[in-house]
Amino acid sequence: MKVFCGRANPTTGSVEWLAEDENYDYHQEIARSSYADMLHDKDRNIKYYQGIQAAVNRVKERGQKALVLDIGTGTGLLSMMAVTAGADFCYAIEVFKPMADAAVKIVEKNGFSDKIKVINKHSTEVTVGPDGDMPCRANILVTELFDTELIGEGALPSYEHAHRHLMQGSCEAVPHRATVYAQLVESSRMWSWNKLLPIRVQTSLGERVIVPPSELDKCPGAPSVYDIQLNQVPPSDFTVLSDVLPMFSVDFSKQVSSSAACHSRQFEPLASGQAQVVLSWWDIEMDPEGKIRCTMAPFWAHSHPQELQWRDHWMQCVYFLPQEEPVVQGSALCLVAHHDDYCVWYSLERTSSEKNGRVYPARPVCDCQAHLLWNRPRFGEINDQDRTDQYVQALKTVLKPDSVCLCVSDGSLLSVLAHYLGAEQVFTVENSAASHRLMNKIFKANHLEDKINVIEKRPELLTSADLEGKKDLWRIRSPCGDCEGFDVRIMDDMIQRALDFRESKEAEPHPLWEYPCRSLSEPQHILTFDFRQPVPSQPLHAEGSIQLRRPGRSHGAVLWMEYHLTPDSTISTGLLKPAADKGDCCWNPHCKQAVYFFSTALDPRAPLGGPQTVSYAVEFHPRTGDVTVDFTLSDTLDDGC
């Protein structure tokens, strides 16, 4: 049976409906999930195991049976740990059916079917009683419901319900407690991810400046957190304005509330500057004494940075204050963390609030349209003055006094550049109403509303009348096999089957500047697109091979675009400069690159008589923007990761 699935056309942005296998969405979720990354997180696994063992021992010492409720069991790993630690029985809850089915098989394969019951329900639907899913309430609560923000996956409502309906009054919880930390910083780079800054344009008549509309300057921004690998951000990119502040804690062994709250912490700034950004992370303590601790702290705040665990499923948070505010060294301020049941946000106050925990200001919401249209990397790209200068120089080589320019790009400022550089007439195609409204605000703020013609249409629907008659990351995919002594190869097989579906064979976008990686080959040209020519009606094909010249294990391939603005000016969405001798890469921080993961890894150090190669076949469909790539490794290793 086929089902229709909505899919965004990468060229036009419009939603198209395609017939897919009825399990298509499940397979895509499985293939692109972080299950494997979590299982490869050795630090997480060890700390959970230690915490579970300690909780089971405490219950046994009280003379009670250890009855475990595992919410969001995934593969069933934590439940199997609990039984191994001596738990009498485990109820493993998993709402995602393909994973629940896999958990049943994994539990059976490891010999725990008599001690673990997998329940394919949301935890809020689980019943307790003689005819229920659980005959009685549990006394040990084990969960892994956390995201980078801690509460973004609904941890608070799930805990709240579990304590009220599924757990005994006095129970153990693993983890026992979580604490959220914050640090106030000034960072022009990070601030450029959130606000439109003045953009300077050098013209023959002198410097012109594109100024942001007041609505954009006053807008508090998007409410969502920006999660990144802070360990990859150079310390020179920000100035620390405060110590690391513990903002709030949640005790998971007691009744948890999902109600809105705020928590204020007074501090004295370490330096004077502009308060712009709050960096945040959390740690979890697996036991009441806090001896078993798993932290997401970046290297400068980590108690043992040499033991730093790289992980992709939990990173660190970047929050933007509604407005930048000047702070003075030594002059006391209060940083306030607000949260509802799913989101956290921050504000800065001059005095301590006596209503700590009882003031609930509304979550910030974008009212300028820009934060709905541009994501954080796009803000950074638009604010990149070097990139703007390259476009200005390229436009100067082609623009003439009688030029008529058509800008086809939602939310692009190229139309303003073209006008400032002397084009006779400029049209800009804004595909959506949101981009139309935003660009009108920018044009008005710069007194250009009667200078640039806005066309709200899909590009392929343009006619000459519209122009007034003028025409001119690998571990995420790595098989787990054995995890902490438990066989989870059934999950590996499930993910591999999911990867066989068409959508999952396509590229995954990843910001590679956040991920430590090395290039094992030199960049290779694959396809060229000449934008001066009509779009081809037939697919474009390319085949070839890439030699792996540096030692290391090849986990995947990366594709990116290089835009040749002029013969001497190129903007790359991938590598910004040739890889160093050892293969260290410098990636464009404003763009995501297209990553194709290999199911097994190739090791060019293998003694096979010379450099190893990866063969590729690329097919590009110009009309839809679809790209399919097949890679063939000349040699594979079964233990690739």
UniProtKB/TrEMBL annotation:
GO cellular component: cytosol; nucleus
Lineage: superkingdom: Eukaryota
Key word Oxidoreductase present: no
Entry's localization field: Cytoplasm, Cytosol; Nucleus
Catalytic activity, EC: 2.1.1.321
GO biological process, one term: spliceosomal snRNP assembly
Cited function: Arginine methyltransferase that can both catalyze the formation of omega-N monomethylarginine (MMA) and symmetrical dimethylarginine (sDMA), with a preference for the formation of MMA. Specifically mediates the symmetrical dimethylation of arginine residues in the small nuclear ribonucleoproteins Sm D1 (SNRPD1) and Sm D3 (SNRPD3); such methylation being required for the assembly and biogenesis of snRNP core particles. Specifically mediates the symmetric dimethylation of histone H4 'Arg-3' to form H4R3me2s.
Broad enzyme group: transferase
Protein's name in the database: Protein arginine N-methyltransferase
A Pfam family reported for this protein in Swiss-Prot or TrEMBL: PrmA
Family: Belongs to the class I-like SAM-binding methyltransferase superfamily. Protein arginine N-methyltransferase family. PRMT7 subfamily.
Assigned keywords, A-Z: Chromatin regulator, Cytoplasm, Differentiation, Methyltransferase, Nucleus, Repeat, S-adenosyl-L-methionine, Transcription, Transcription regulation, Transferase
Domain Protein arginine N-methyltransferase residues, every copy: 176-349, 471-635
Reaction(s) catalysed by this chain's protein: L-arginyl-[protein] + S-adenosyl-L-methionine = N(omega)-methyl-L-arginyl-[protein] + S-adenosyl-L-homocysteine + H(+)
GO molecular function, one term: protein-arginine omega-N symmetric methyltransferase activity
Transmembrane segment boundaries: none
Organism (species): Phyllostomus discolor
